User: Which sequence fits this backbone?
């Protein structure tokens, strides 16, 4: 299945990246809040 993973349409890849980025932003904000 690793081959089909790289053959994802741009839309699917973009949505996945957006989810990952939003999760990362949330994680970063949490870290900053806990550090203060």
Assistant:
């Amino acid at each position: 299945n690793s081959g089909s993973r790289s053959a994802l349409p741009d839309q699917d890849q973009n949505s996945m990246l957006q989810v990952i980025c939003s999760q990362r932003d949330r994680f970063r904000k949490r870290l900053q809040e806990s550090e203060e």
User: Anything to note?
Assistant: The radius of gyration is 14 Å.
